[in-house]
Amino acid sequence: MIPVHLPLVELLIDIFAASILVTAFLIVSSRSLVFYIRLFALQSLLLGMVALLVVIGYGETHILIAAILTIAIKAIAIPVVLTRVIERIHVQKEIRFRMSITASLMFCGGIVILADSVAQSILRSPHAEASAVTRVLSVSIAMMLIGLFIMMTRQKALTQIIGLLTMENGVFLSGLSITYGMPLIVEVGIFFDILVAVLILGVFVFRINKTFESISIDSLRSLRH
Amino acid sequence: MVDWEAFQPAALTVMLGGYALGGVVPAILGILWRNRTKPGGSLTGAVKNIGFGLALAAALAGCLLSLSILISGTPLHMEFLPTAHVGMMGFHADTLSALFIGAISLLGAAAACFSLGYAAEFLLRRSMVLLVVLYNFFVLSMIGVLIADHALLFLFFWECMSLTTYFLITFEHEEHAARRAGFLYIVMTHIGTAFLLVMFLLLYSTAGSFAFEAFRMEGARLPASTQSVVFLCATIGFGIKAGIIPFHIWLPEAHPAAPSNVSAMMSGVMIKTGIYGMVRVFFDFLGPVIPGWWGVLILTIAVTSSVLGVLYALMEHDLKRLLAFHSIENIGIILMGVGAALLFASWGNRPLAVIALIAGLYHVLNHAIFKGLLFLGAGSVLHAAHTRNIEDLGGLIKRMPWTAFFFLIGAIAISGLPPLNGFISEWLTFQALLLGFHIPDLTVKIVIPLTVALLALTGALAAACFVKAFGITFLGLPRSGHADRAGESSFTMLAAMGFLALLCIFLGIAPGPIVSVLNPLASSLLEEASTGQIVMHAGTVLIPRSASASISPAALTGLLVVIAAIPLAGISIFVLKSRSRIAPTWACGLERIDPRMQYTATGFSKPLRIIFSDIFRATHEVGISEEPSPYFRPTITYELKTESVFLKYLYEPVFRSIVSAARIIRRIQTGRIQTYLAYIFVTLILLLLFAR
After folding, report:
1. Which residues does chain A have within 8 Å of residue B682's beta carbon, measured at their own beta carbons?
2. C-alpha distance from residue B228 to each of B2, B349, B433, B471, B525 (Å)
3. ipTM associated with this complex
């Protein structure tokens, strides 16, 4: 494929990357479990689009498969599985928060600033190669941190999964931004890993709900003794 | 002229292959016919016979291999995995390895033969497949330890050995004591492995390779401080396996818990792998220039182990635990030879060091044989009477005459009495120590006489202990129904014990061949050119360096027979002519005696318990039940407890501090996932800020 060096492609990548960050913020600000899943599906779709744009814009054909897999697994398969789990356990809302939504959003804003400064310092180093895609590095670091933050502040086991998947999207994006994507075999491995993990976690959530009558992971404290 | 080059690899292959097949074939049978190899299944007998039969064949091949290496002096060398960065991996069996392989194979042959009869006890109760597989892999890994020529290979076999023994100790896992012993063993042995790892890494840092060949070349060139750290790591790491005091706590728990054929192997040869490691590292890697304090340290450990080992043994009434404590004692005696060799070598007196090392290595072989014999005897008793508590035994000499006879031979040998093998090696140790008197140094002049005196004490106490063990177990009247119903063991078990008893006698009367083989071995380890430190002259052992030290075991035996014949002749001439009456033994002519009138083991050891009361710290409790009339047999209970100084003042404080430290650390363990994530998150943020 002939590389098409278009400013348009760069612009689109920027827009999509920004939208991905927005979806992460929306997850932080929302309460509904169903909404989380839909937002995650949207986020993954946007990620797949970024990958496709890298293919079109820079001629990195091996990412094509990764992009398709992203859309197929993360934007379609995983959300479907998780939606089923929610339907079966009849839990709709994240009720108790460790940190209020407003404070969380402020904190995540701080995270983005930190991520950007870290990304800048990485890119300033003499080894870094300037490419259009490196601009999304700050987004990817922010995504990883926000994913961890979601896992840290939420109660429901399902939200933990969403946090984990958000982190994973961040990892994928950073791979994309620094080296135009990791080698295909690594990517495929990660996809498989994530898919299996989500299936197992889904079963876990179901069992936890059956055992503790709730999917609040606070109940797991009783395992300590 | 025998072609060693072709014979040795063949013997090695047969030996390793025999053990490996002995492990693999039963495992395959167990997988294919799961139902028929279950306890009580129709194939269990076949599994037992195949497994132990192959072990027996492999042990015989091992005897031949060991003999061929020892006699020819040509080491067997094999390289099979050339690894560029860490050195050549392979097997290397020199005469030192061959001596230990010989000990394993002699005892292994007896133990395998014994197991053919003994393991029948487990046919209905236990997984025979498991026992056979573990046993064979256990022996295989011991051989591997001895022939490994590469630190990583050595550690691999070392760990295999530890794991297989762990599962053998916990073989009867329903018993709480067995599980506890297994846990203690695995913890201690892993601490030991950690020290060995440090030792090998230190050697690697200089040698640049994990091959033993490189250690041999570079070990002597290490800086003195590093050498000493290596020495300490080896002493602790191998010492834990050998069971030296104060690292002995696992040994009296673990050896009795395992099946008796396995305890014989563990006590007879497995703990000797620790001695092998020490000799290998001290003399082969680090020698020949040795600081003086090494020898003093090893001698101190040796004396402590032997005296305390035998004292604790005296207080034991569990036959197998008693034997386990005697293993500690004998490891001490072996280390006296090794320590004296280190001390003399540090003073440059190599010929003397050679004599001391020969004494130590001879005792390795002897202890393997008589301790194996005693454990097999204890196994027979356990098999017949179903109890290890000697207070419940008695009178077995009438019910199991052959077992009693063989046990007696083992008991005489371990007590160091002539004309059996234990005497020869202890005599050599004495000679080496006494000759060390000429070294003009104050420390040596203090250490050596003390060692000699305490070795003499050890011998006397060991004899006392075995008078107790043999007398209470086999003589007198049965103290319980179990002992009353006991019967003689099967033929294979007796044959195994008879074989070892013959070896005890042979090694005692004819030490010549062994000494002539050990002399070049010890000389080459100490890099001493001449090999005539101990010579045999017309069946007499001579130490040429001193005018007085010579002994002729054969003449001694003859003398013993003559001396024994005199009173016998006197009896037959004078006593038998007079009127005689047959009455029960020890009954002072009374007609009937009750088993409860007999001396007990506790009573027997009471005088020593009083003399050494500071060490035992014994407390006893007498409970007399309240009855209406004091004349009608109130139940009286007597409970005696001795306290282990090491457990109380060394191990318990360590355990306590670890537990209290864990309690403090536990506070950060909330059990809430979010908290753990928060730890990660905060760390990550801090790192990012820091690295920016």
Report:
1. none
2. 43, 21, 24, 46, 19
3. 0.78
